[in-house]
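Predict the 3D structure for this chain.
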Amino acid sequence: MAARKNEKSLVVGLDVGTSKIVAIVGEVQADGNVEVIGLGSHPSRGLKRGVIVDMASTEQAIQRAVEEAELMAGCEIHSVFAGISGNHIRSLNSDGTVAIKDKEVSEGDVDRVLDAARAVPVAADQKILHVLPQEYVIDNQDGIRQPIGMAGVRLEAHVHVVTAALSATQNIGKCVARCGLVIDELIMQPLAASHAVLTDDEKDLGICLVDIGAGTTDIAVFTEGAIRHTACIPIAGDQVTNDIAVALRTPTQHAEDIKIKYACALEQLARSDETIQVPSVGDRTSRRLARQTLAQVVEARYRELFSLVQAELRRSGLESMVAAGLVLTGGASRIEGAGELAEEIFHMPVRLATPQGVSGLSDVVSNAIHATGVGLLLYGSQADYGRAVLTPGGGEAFFDRVRSWFRGEF
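Done. Predicted structure below.
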């Protein structure tokens, strides 16, 4: 059943990230556009490199983010489109072939050919997350994107199959269920982010999306309008923070603040006369260091990260096909000099992207850190499901939730 709020359809994206949990509520307009009407965010300490390591902490963070989004949107959330990431995610390309039943391709034929394509050997500890059609072939005529209604005898599908660790998907499901919510669909995060930051032209021409978060760097490669390769690298913003903490001998929290305010991924962009204040560990006095010293530490880690992305792109065999270059998004992509360093390493155009395609609180969510959250919202709005939100049962229920939220906050 489609959920309603004043006769309007709502959908919710839940980004379960390493540094933060974000819940975004969107209202799907009659013309299919999405207006963001609620946003809740809470720091996450229960995940490491995209995978849950502390159930109770993650559950609490999800609860807080969802309650905040409910308050802002004035609704009650029952189910969500949730994102999943981590080094356990695997992907492969597969094919399937079936006979067309009535000499004309029906929806049933497409379902059967996708079922045939998903019949690939999967390890016992993995489960299939997505079967994403790349193209269809009817009687040797290839390059078909929408085969329904076309005449033919034999239908073939080329698909991209994404699998994830069973335990990781179950743990996210359990955390969400303990918050009284249902997962409509679990979506791989780079696939979600691609809905928010990539244009159709880029997907057609060939593009590599690099989503640099706190715990993981997610990669998705598109050519000819379809997804061809996905991967996850377990190095991202947290490693940069850790490097700064170790090299400058400063507590992790201060290292994070220094990274956000002063870090630069290209040493030559930092002026030699610039200095920064660095708090010391314990009760020692803080020191002043050259910003170039910080840039050296940060540049070394970003060089390693981009080299690993380049190696992954080469391994996929698609490096020569990404004519539109790279799109960088995610919180750790906002660092000064990241785009310039990527251009130097990849020798191709690099664009820094923020989420597009939504209205409403767009000034709040038009930030690279919300790329996955907005992408989940857009993915959910295009899904065939009923919408996932209901209004409160009555005024009392709503104010009870407001009171409990304030008690939790203060």
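The two ends are 37 Å apart (CA to CA).
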